[in-house]
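Data availability (excerpt). The following record was deposited with the supplementary files.
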Amino acid sequence: MRFKALVVDDSALMRSEIKKILELDPDLEVIATAQNGEEALQLVKECQPDVVTMDINMPEMNGLESLKHIMQENPCPVVMVSALTSESADETIEALAVGAFDFFQKPSGSISLDIALQGDIIRKKVRVAARSKRKIRSASESWKKIDRKAKVIERVRQSLNRSRNERLASASSIVAIGVSTGGPRALMSILPALPSSFKGSIVIAQHMPEKFTYSFAKRLDGICALRVKEAENGEPLQNGVIYIAPGGRHLRVLQHSDRHHGIEVDNQMTNSFYMPSVEVLFRSLLESAGNQWLGIMLTGMGSDGAQALTDLRHMGGHTIAESEDSCVVFGMPRKVIELEGAEFTLHQDKIANKIVELIGNAVCH
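Predicted structure:
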């Protein structure tokens, strides 16, 4: 059975090009196209597509507004189409918060004649999104709860006594998280649940291109009790701070003086397809911190970081894999579990408490 796709873009040329790209996949059939958000809403209702590609910037009703209506009225997987601008990055992160499955970029502006260069990744993302239709539908209500919680935190964050523990992070207080498809929603659920008194330092490799990670860190900083920032080369790891690896660059944690650790950010090519790479981050911690850190694998396609996390577990370190029940894509955690690298396999809702439990015990010893 072929998956039914709806393509939404105000440019006739882009609608045609995206349709051609998708239909090179034997599993995908473009059943309709729309030129604005209002038309998309009607076609989603009439055609019941398995997946929608949605341009962000459109007249009459833009992609973000259309997405909000779809998730409320006829939930289905939506893959956003974003231009390479700071404004589009902010809107894309907002779309992921609202419930978009994933996004892909137009490589050269709103009219990208070279979009076919992105063909393989576009087809992969849309195909995986279409297969996740059942999970997206069942997750829509829980996302509304997450969004309400975020809004409450955002309203009161100015009155929070945010943790500003200036003590540098030691190995036993470091948490490293690897995540890909579905990651923004997972992180926007887990990280706000950590208290301002949390004594650890968190480093995250989220598969995301440059420009978007800055917007994502800014969004998280607005809803978390802990400080969240895009990581910078050379800065020391501080307890009470969450660091997001910059898109298009690798993040490593290196040992500085004594037991303290710092960040290295670079764009050196490795044998990893992803930049930032989860494997690169986890390997750096194995080298600089041994088994004294907590490793976590969340939702995502593929197996990036699975072997390094398994090595941590086999060395006696603590590891967590997100369970299939809450994963948007049960790829990266599944690989960890298959390799017997997961000490704990937990639903997304239980991960924050386990982080506090494990790091609290480690810091106290």
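Summary of structural features: The chain has twelve helices and 14 strands.
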